[in-house]
Amino acid sequence: MINQSKFLAMLKKDQAWGLALTKKIHQTDITMFSRQMATMIGAGMPLVPAFDVIRRSTTNKHLKSLVLEIKDDIEASDSFAEALHKHPTHFNSLFCSLIDAGEKSGTLAIMLDKIATYQERLDTVRRKVKKAMAYPLTVLLMAFFITSGLLMFVIPQFIVLFQSFGAELPFLTRTIIHLSNIFQTYGYVLLGTFIGVIGGIIYRKKTSLDFSRRIDHILLKLPVFGLLLTKSIIARFSRTLAITFSAGLPLMQALQAAGNVTGNRIYQLASCRIQDAIAYGQQLNLALENTGLFPALVIQIVAIGEESGTLEIMLNKIADYYEDEINHTIETLNILLEPFIMAILGIVIGTLLLAVYVPIFKLGSIM
């Protein structure tokens, strides 16, 4: 059975691409490095001259330094994979294992090209999902801060005017004035509390496995967005298994890498359980089914791949299918969310305007 120490060791050993890079060298830099190396080696250029070309062509001084260190290690008799392994911040164990497999099989250029394509696809999926989930959240946060600003700084200017009327104000106006008084008195406290809660959640998610697992479980259960996140996880999981199988890596190592790349603790723990099941002789499709996290379609296609000996092809088909599903879901979300968000903004702003101007209009009609 899996335990917390085994799970944490697994995470430390193989960080997901895109999460372990420094701000000085980005994921796109590593992807471009892979693509350029694939092109030059495929054209028959030796490794060392290829590194010189990359150093001359890049404007990123940190990447220049990294490439120089790799080149020096290779000239000192290290293999390409061994040289990369010395830089785990930029090249995780999966990357190094794939390069090692490419070197040993004489297909280094092909493997580098596969890695670059794989990285590009994962990055595209991750970016699309983040953008789709961030858009409504960003708009709603902006609406909240704008409304808070109006309540704290604009509405108070009208309160003096309303008090000069000497008449009873409408219920809506009285409610808005009450909210304005609350925000004037406790606005900064509420803002500080909000920022503190968000910061605390982020910190706890990074430091507590149990808390992180609960947050990831909640994210998967979110209406619409949970389904989108699940599709992206399955796409990345399947794509990672496919590329590891194509390189001939052991199944346990493949499952470990596939679990890590999901970026979700629920699926990472499920990957550990799948490894345990495989170790006891269970077929992959049954191990996936027993987690309760993979749709019947995925399980059936994996079963077909296992029976026909075409598991790599079937896994790529699964990834392709879910990437298409992600695009379709995001398009649908954009169509549905935009009018919904605009309606919310309209209601909020309209309510504030009514609360402010109805008393003025009433006074004007009396006079």
Number of helices: 15
In whole angstroms, the N-to-C terminal distance is: 81 Å
Helix/strand-derived class? Answer: mainly alpha
CATH superfamily of the largest domain: Type II secretion system (T2SS), domain F
Mean pLDDT: 88
Number of domains: 2
Largest sheet report: none
Low-confidence stretches: 15-20
Structure, explained:
The structure is a single chain. The protein is an all-alpha fold and 367 residues long. Helices cover 83% and strands 0% of the residues. It is built from 15 helices and no strands. The chain is elongated, with a radius of gyration of 27 Å. About 2% of the residues have low confidence.
Detail the topology: elements first, then pairings.
Blueprint lengths: L3 H10 L13 H16 L4 H11 L3 H15 L4 H6 L7 H13 L2 H58 L5 H37 L1 H13 L3 H22 L4 H11 L3 H15 L4 H8 L4 H13 L2 H56 L1
Helix pairs in contact: 2-3, 2-7, 3-4, 6-7, 7-8, 7-10, 7-15, 8-9, 8-15, 9-10, 10-11, 10-15, 11-12, 12-13, 13-14, 14-15
Pfam families: T2SSF (PF00482)
Family: Belongs to the GSP F family.
Keywords: Cell inner membrane, Cell membrane, Membrane, Transmembrane, Transmembrane helix, Transport
Structural key phrases:
mainly alpha, 367 residues, Receptor-associated Protein, 2 domains, 83% helix, 15 helices
Short description:
By secondary structure, this protein is mostly helical. The chain is built from 15 helices and no strands.
